[in-house]
Amino acid sequence: MIIVLKPTATESQAQDILKRIEDAGLKPLYMPGVERIVLGALGDERVLQKLNLDANPCVENIKPILTKYKMVSREVQAHDTVVRFGNASVGGNQFAVIAGPCSVESEQQLLSVAEVVKQHGAVALRGGAYKPRTSPYDFQGMGVEGLKLLKQASEMLNMPTVSEVMEVSQMETMCEYIDCLQIGARNMQNYALLKAVGESKKPVLLKRGLSATIEELLLAAEYIYDAGNPNIILCERGIRTFETATRNTLDLNAVAFLKQKTHLPVVVDPSHGTGVRELVIPLSRAAAAVGADGIIVESHLNPGEALSDGHQALTGPMFQQLMQELKPFVEAAGKTL
Ligand code: PEP
Ligand code: MN
């Protein structure tokens, strides 16, 4: 429920109501505005009704939050959340480009591609050290050695990093080396992991599950928020459909829909969304046009040699071309690159 107080309501009246909400076993929310204070109460709505807040003279009106997700909803917070890590910010007027290899493979591979993407305007470096691979025989990532290389690249280039955490047991090490924790598509409904990243307070890039609905994605984000972490970036990375021509079907509906329903920033992953290098630039343009807050793209200076996802990696010159072609679309959407 959202409880809008009258402009004349005082701070102490607001605190009294918050206490009653808390005493009833509900989660209180405090949202002071310029003109009036807005409160929220999350939990069993029947309990809230018993509090009879309508009768309180400082309450102007009470509105139910109609969606299942609450704190990530625009009904609770109208303005856009901006997630900051290192010198990068995602959300608001900036269109953020996060780029780097699918997997960290070696010092030379990571540093060389990081330099190129940084030079052309990427604001953060991606790279997987723990890789969720469909086959157990495929490259599983460099583990902690990969994390160390990411940290080294980050310090050399003054560029924050994004990397996937696959298990709760990896959290401590990840937090030591990485600036933004990626939850991969396969782990979107790993609730223990969602709670762990929620408790950590590190920015989180939450990818949509392979067959997850938009509501399920938002409820996964709600888990992280509810555990205490509001620094969440949502990522549309393509879903499973009947179509087999491309690896996944990039759901741009989801981006426009999410931008209406949630205040969290939304980025697009056209690399996994298409699985085809040649389609990454056109779908990146589309992401900017539809109102995304950024993209996360895979890039490799020698994709033929890549240990994972080489077929969808942009080469150095293609990354440069991407940045040039993005600019007018980002500007048309009212953002800056
Ligand atoms: C990745 O980013 O390399 C990755 C494994 O992504 P996803 O979880 O979207 O498949
Ligand atoms: Mn990949």
TrEMBL record:
Q: Write down the superkingdom of origin.
A: Bacteria
Q: Key word Transferase present in the record?
A: yes
Keywords for this entry?
Transferase
Determine if Transferase is one of this entry's keywords. Answer: yes
Domain DAHP synthetase I/KDSA, residue spans = 91-327
Q: Which InterPro entries does the UniProt entry name for this protein? A: Aldolase_TIM, Class-I_DAHP_synthase, DAHP1/KDSA, DAHP_snth_FXD, DAHP_syn_2
Segments forming domain DAHP synthase ferredoxin-like:
1-66
Matches recorded under Gene3D superfamilies: Aldolase class I, Phospho-2-dehydro-3-deoxyheptonate aldolase, domain 1
Q: Name one Pfam family in it.
A: DAHP_snth_FXD
Check the record and name the PANTHER family matching this protein. PHOSPHO-2-DEHYDRO-3-DEOXYHEPTONATE ALDOLASE
**What NCBIfam families does the database record attribute to this sequence?**
DAHP_synth_Bsub, PRK08673.1, PRK12595.1
This protein is called Bifunctional 3-deoxy-7-phosphoheptulonate synthase/chorismate mutase
